[in-house]
């Protein structure tokens, strides 16, 4: 999976980049569906906006979190995307199973 990390309104530190890469490494188990991803970290006065967009086969999964702590926000957005990927995988498998059943008949 190719992951791009961008920072808006602040400089991206190595520690923050390593943390984001470590958290998104959890999503590697869905590697056969994932094409690429884009993580946008935006810092405002008191809040941080974290947005993760994942391109998968035949779809795009998008999630956004607002949190004062940027590290907690990254963790939350990865959990959200992981849940969405589990649902996507279940739908993909069900669609594939249905197609196989109709071929046999």
Number of helices: 2
Q: In total, how many domains does the architecture comprise?
A: 1
Low-confidence stretches: none
CATH-assigned fold name: Double Stranded RNA Binding Domain
- Tell me the β content: 25-35%
Helix/sheet category: alpha+beta
Distance between the termini: 37 Å
Element order, helices and strands? EHEEEH
CATH superfamily: Ribosome hibernation promotion factor-like
* CATH class designation: Alpha Beta
Strand order of the largest sheet: 1-2-3-4
Which of globular, elongated, flat, extended, rod-shaped describes the shape?
Answer: elongated
Write the layout of secondary structure elements.
Elements: E1 2-8, H1 14-24, E2 34-43, E3 48-56, E4 59-67, H2 70-104
Parallel strand pairs: 1-2
Antiparallel strand pairs: 2-3, 3-4
Give a written overview of the molecule:
The protein is an alpha+beta fold and 105 residues long. It has one domain (2-104): Double Stranded RNA Binding Domain (2-Layer Sandwich), CATH 3.30.160. The chain contains two helices and four strands, in the order E-H-E-E-E-H. It has a four-stranded mixed sheet with strand order 1-2-3-4, with helices on one face. Helix 1 runs parallel beside helix 2. The model has no long low-confidence stretch (mean pLDDT 90).
Which descriptors apply to this entry?
105 residues, 44% helix, elongated, four-stranded mixed β-sheet, Double Stranded RNA Binding Domain, alpha+beta, 33% strand
